[in-house]
Each structure stands twice: as C-alpha cells, then as structure tokens.
Design a protein that fits this description.
binds 2-phosphoglycolic acid; 15% strand; single chain
C-alpha cells in the first residue's frame, strides 16, 4: 500500500506565508512526484487559496478540523460539506492540541468523525497517551479505551475510509522536552492499535505515526510494517526538510 505523509501546518503561518509555502510545494519535483501520497493541511483561512495552487496525482488537500454538522446555527464552525466542496479530501480530527486547548472530548471527536465520513471526507483521527499515562505504564489501556470511545457504534460502509494518527502527546515537538518515539516502539504500539481497531470496527485501518518526525527519522518510521504514514508538524514548514522526507 502507498504510504501517506500529512503536513500539518497548524496555525504557524500567516495567510501570505501559507500561499508561498503551497507554491513551493507545488513547484518542488520531489514533493510533487513523491512515492507517498502527500496531504497538505493549511489553516482554514488559507485552505481555499491553497486548493487552487495544489495539483498532481499525489498531492491532496486536508483541513485541520471540521464541525459535527453540515449547516446550522454554529457560530465559528466550518462545515465538512463546504470543505469537501472546495476540494478538501482529508480532515485531521481530535488533535491533542484541540483536546487540550478547546476541551474536545472523545464524544465530540466521535461526532466529528461521523459527520466527516458522511460527507465523504477521510478523517485522520488523532489518538495518543500523555506523559503521565506513559510513566504509569497505562499507554495500552488508555489507547484501547479511547479507541472504544471513539469508534463504538460507528457504522461504516465498505467504501468509507478513515485513518488513525498515533501521536504520543509527549512526542509532539511543541511540547516541552519532546522527543520522537523510538520507531520500533511506535511499530509495536501501532500493531496493538491495529488489533484493537480491527476488533471494534471489523475493518483494516491505516495508522500513521506523528510526533517530532524529521528528515532524520522519517525513513526509519516508514520502513516499519505497522506504520502506514506520517503526520508531520514543524518539519513540514521547512521546504528543504519536507522534500527530504518525500
Ligand atoms: P510535530 O507535530 O511534527 O511538530 O511534532 C506533529 C503534530 O502535532 O501533528
């Protein structure tokens, strides 16, 4: 299966900087002709303009969040239907920054997943243990419980697609003293996640790894059997770094 590299630009760039970076991605032959699928997730304000810039059979557009409904009295939200209509194909949901900063809980993330799938978007659902859970040896228990909360009762048609991004919160580069997870360990945890997900939704789901991925460690992660792709934050903003990964 083709691997996938997702560039999460977060809210790190101004509108003008996002347009400039999108043009650099588009002009870069290594990115444009990458063996993996590349998904670019700019902030909401830039997504429409970036959609006009990106083209090519391996370059796709993603969003960093979406609402639980398509239309309605929901001030400040962004409709998954509207995202779809401007060419967005993937959507990151339940990122740990949204959980921490905006109090998103599993039931809200589950509702977003449902709405995105109903619209034909491909959700990239983020899960990952905190440093405390890791230190207490609770990683697997936490992940299993979270997967149950997120996907129990989710009815999927055979054509519906979604992905999980395993992002240990302590490994995300914006977290103090973050450190990438050892690729072998990430591979083991992701094997576990695959097993739990397959039991609950009776479907094989691609699992990406995220957390301090850079051009130095990307290839090692991508070689792992249970790592189907990468979710990249900081390193996706640096064109030289990102092209090396691609
Ligand atoms: P990072 O971010 O690659 O900068 O660690 C990953 C993410 O938060 O998705």
């Amino acid at each position: 299966m083709k691997k996938i590299i997702v560039a999460n630009w977060k809210m790190k760039l101004s509108y003008a900087e996002s347009i400039t970076l999108a043009k650099k991605y588009q002009a870069n032959q290594l990115i444009k002709n990458a063996k993996s699928d590349i998904v670019v997730c700019p902030d909401f304000i830039s997504v429409r303009e970036v959609s006009k810039i990106l083209s090519g059979k391996s370059l796709f557009l993603g969003a960093q969040d979406a609402a639980t409904i398509d239309r309605g009295a929901s001030t400040g939200e962004v409709s998954p239907a509207d995202l779809k209509s401007i060419g967005v194909r993937y959507v990151i949901l339940g990122h740990s920054e949204r959980r921490e900063q905006f109090g998103e809980d599993s039931s809200l993330v589950a509702a977003k997943v449902k709405a995105a799938i109903a619209e034909g978007l491909i959700p990239i659902v983020c899960i990952g243990e905190s440093l405390v859970e890791r230190k207490n040896g609770e990683t697997r228990n936490y992940l299993q419980a979270e997967i149950k909360r997120l996907f129990k009762g989710l009815k999927l048609k055979s054509s519906d697609r979604f992905m999980i991004a395993y992002e240990p919160v302590w490994a995300i580069s914006s977290v103090k003293s973050a450190k990438a997870m050892d690729p072998e360990e990430a591979n083991f945890v992701q094997e576990f996640i695959k097993g739990v997900v397959a039991k609950i939704i009776k479907k094989k789901v691609p699992i990406l790894y995220g957390g301090s991925v850079s051009s130095i460690n990307a290839a090692t992660y991508l070689k792992m059997k249970n790592i189907d792709g990468l979710l990249v934050g900081a390193a996706s903003l640096d064109i030289a770094e990102f092209q090396k990964m691609c």
